[in-house]
Amino acid sequence: METDVITIDGPTSSGKNSVGFLLAQELGYQYIDTGSIYRAGCVFIIKNEIPLDGQERIVQVFKDLTVGIKMQNHNIRVIANGEDVTDILHNADVTKIVPEVAAIRKVREATKIIQHNLGKVKNTVMTGRDIGSEIFPDAKYKFFLTASSKVRAKRRFKQLVEKDPSIKYEDVLKGMMDRDKKDSEREASPMRIPKGAFVIDNTNLTVEETVDQMLKYITGSGK
Ligand code: C5P
Questions:
Q1: With the C-alpha atoms ordered 163, 80, 3, 99, is the resulting torsion angle positive or negative?
Q2: In order of start, what are the domains of the chain with their CATH numbers?
Q3: Which of 18, 66, 115, 150 has the most other CB atoms within 10 Å of its CB?
């Protein structure tokens, strides 16, 4: 059976994950956040103390990586190499290295296979940076989400300060801008607006309003 894939790309804290999760629920699709695949690989790079200049070993981590998604009490759990890594995926040490690791072409090739396999299982909403442009260029519906950098940094700050009250907004904004720059300027499959994508700026929209726009687009486009 051919599965449907809806892609949502966009920069850090553009709301992709909340929007993708809700859209998937509305449609009865599975939700895959591909950032968590890159992050899961980085968890094992850190665990095995692999240096960032050890490209061959880094690529091997991604070639060996198995990723499964499990729903638990309405929350998504990410199981990587048989371990539930959900709670450590957004640790600062992971966030710090992930753009550099994700820029390695062979890492992206290995990750592409994982993403294709996950998309084959069921109808899927998949979020990331290059899903509509590179991974599923023939997806039925493609979206690109964005919002002003100040609003995105505020969203991110709100999430992070709950874990670490000493965190500063200015540092969050800077870290976010650095990450977006690396993701947009890398040679291997940079973040860009996919051909044929519907662009939504959700600076002044709630998650529900954003999903409403998407559903209207989907039902109205008659594809
Ligand atoms: O979306 P999230 O912030 O979890 O992604 C973490 C990092 O993983 C991004 O900054 C980017 O470097 C990388 N990534 C990517 N391509 C994707 C998803 C994430 O390069 N499709």
A1: positive
A2: 1-29+123-223 (3.40.50.300), 35-121 (3.40.50.300)
A3: 115
User: pLDDT tens across 48-76, in order?
Assistant: 999 999 999 999 999 999 999 998 888 89
pTM: 0.94
* pLDDT tens column, 152-191: 999 999 988 998 899 999 999 999 999 999 999 999 999 9
Ligand 1, CB within 6 Å, residue ranges: 12, 34-35, 38-39, 98-99, 102, 128-131, 179, 183
- Tokens encoding 129: 């940076």
Length of the chain: 223
Identify the burial level of 58 via C-beta atoms within 10 angstroms of its C-beta, where 0-12 means exposed, 13-18 middle and 19 or more buried.
buried
Long-range CB contact pairs, 170-174, < 8 A, 24+: 173/149
Closest by CA position to 93, among listed 43, 163, 168, 164: 43
